[in-house]
Amino acid sequence: MKQSYYFSELASSYDAEIQDLLTDSEGKSALKARLAEKRKEFKAILPMIEFAPEMVVPVFYDGLTFSNPKEMAAVVRCEPDDDDFPSWDGLAPIITFASWARPLLDAVLGERAGEEFMVKVACLEFLRKFDTGSAAPAADDEEKEERQDDEEGDDDERDLGEAGDDWLADQGFDSARS
Q1: How far apart are alpha carbons 88 and 152 in whole angstroms?
Q2: Residues 104 and 42 sit within 8 Å (Cβ to Cβ)
Q3: In terms of CB atoms within 10 Å, which of 47, 88, 122, 170 comes out highest?
Q4: Which pLDDT tens digit goes with each residue over 83-96?
């Protein structure tokens, strides 16, 4: 999925944060517990929305659904200082929040930089869910992909390899196809 430089960099940081949350020091799955911990500490980390948004966005992990993916795909191609970059009020109608995430949303919108942060949240969660060229998916997503791979057969291995090569090239590494 085509992304602006801004969202490409921020999504990379967000992916790294999610990867850090996935497992504990023994390699056991810890995502659910660590997300719960972040949500519990939400008020303490809320000031980070302005200088380290990727550290706060995980509190909304799997808390958003999108009624217009085409519009969201257009948003992630924008830079925040673009004239066509949406306001939160313009974007909010196409996003639905899980009931557990609504109090978090209300708290964020009470902050000075809250609306801008919520646009970032929406974009990062959209990219995490729908950008097939992004970094490795989280544990629950990996299980779904394994089931799909078993059903679809080996044809996708070539496509996955190409996607991996493309991702490596985007990160500045030489791809295997070069």
Answers
A1: 39
A2: yes
A3: 122
A4: 888 999 999 999 99
